[in-house]
Amino acid sequence: MPKQKTSSSKKTFSKKTTATARITRPKPKKIKYQIVISSSWSLFKNSLKTIEFQKKFLGFAVVAYALLSAVLVVNISSFDKVSHVKSTYVHGLLTIGKNLSASLSTLGSLGGTVGGSNSSASSVIQFFLFILFSLMFIKAIREASRSRKLKFSEGIYASCYPIIQFLLVVIILALESLPIIFAAYFFNTIFSNGIAPSWIERTIWTIVCTAFLLFGIYLLISSIFSLFIVTLPNMRPWASIKSSWKLVKSRRLLVARKIITMIISLFIGLGILALILVWLLPVISAWVLLILGLMSFVLVYTYLYSLYRELL
Fold it and tell me: If you ran DSSP here, which 8-state letter would residue 147 be given?
């Protein structure tokens, strides 16, 4: 009997110790892994490597895009007029400073010439060309990330698959950019026409326009990666928008900094290069500017895709 009592006491003691051990055992801490994103310069170099790998397909696509734009969209007859006016204007001036101011003044009209269209029907054609070649560029960039070179015919047929989904996503992004358009319109209208004469009114309208601008940037930053997500198989437009919002959650400032840095750098680089072309080679400046604009279009997509891959 005493042996049985000792065994029962041991059992109760072991149960108590295991129970206390379970209670006092610390819970494992959840380790949050922070994704480190490369610098803007590293993303830019990766974009150039992607373009270099897929240069044959992207080169054919850019040339085809330029030719179709020149024939169907851009007013070709005004190209020679701008170049002729610029050449006579530059040769008629003597100092470098005046030549530089002439180039700056003509650069705006040249940009309007390259981006202009013949009619409203040309604007519709330009929009569908944008959709078609955007899908081709994204397809080429995605295949380059898999170390697979894409043939031109294959890229045309394969990229046209999610055209409806991609079109709906572009429309959603256009709606999200309306606050930015409203902010620019109100700011220009109010401050250029003197509608707000006092400093209190100017301050209030500045705050309102800034709020609209930041809200539009917030929406676009949250949804920009849906352009790549919607091209995945069996992906719906609204699901791609939701996935993009989840992807940039709590990292919007970081993503915005990377994208804004890219836009500013690209704008400055293209502006300087276009200024040199207008100044030194006015005869072919409009055509070269058109090609450079389309090449920068490819660079923007490649940069955004590199950033999208690092956020995954």
Answer: T
DSSP 118: S
User: Which of 117, 114, 66 has the alpha carbon at shortest distance from 278?
Assistant: 114
How far, CA to CA in Å, does 216 sit from each of 24, 213, 251? 51, 5, 17
Alpha helix ranges (H) inside 146-280: 152-159, 163-176, 178-192, 199-223, 226-229, 237-247, 252-280
Give residue 134's domain range.
39-311
**Nearest Cα to Cα of residue 156 among 142, 126, 136, 137:** 136
Any domain includes 11: no
pLDDT at 79 over 60: no
Q: Is residue 6 part of a domain?
A: no
Whether 100 is in a domain gets the answer: yes
Q: Is the dihedral of CA 153, 155, 148, 64 positive or negative?
A: positive
Confidence (pTM):
0.75
- CA dist 201 and 191 (Å) reads 10
Helices (H) and strands (E) in the chain, counts: 14, 0
Residue type present at position 209 = C
The answer to whether residue 91 sits within a structural domain is yes
What's the pLDDT at 124?
A: 84
Tens-place pLDDT, residues 246-267: 999 889 999 999 999 999 998 8
Sign for the CA dihedral angle at 212, 223, 167, 51 comes to positive
Residues 6+ away with beta carbon under 8 Å from 103:
86, 90, 275, 278, 279
Quick one: tokens of 304? Answer: 């955004």
Q: Structural domain tally of the chain?
A: 1
DSSP string, 51-71: HHHTHHHHHHHHHHHHHHHHH
- Would you place residue 187 in the very low, low, confident or very high pLDDT band (cuts 50, 70, 90)? confident
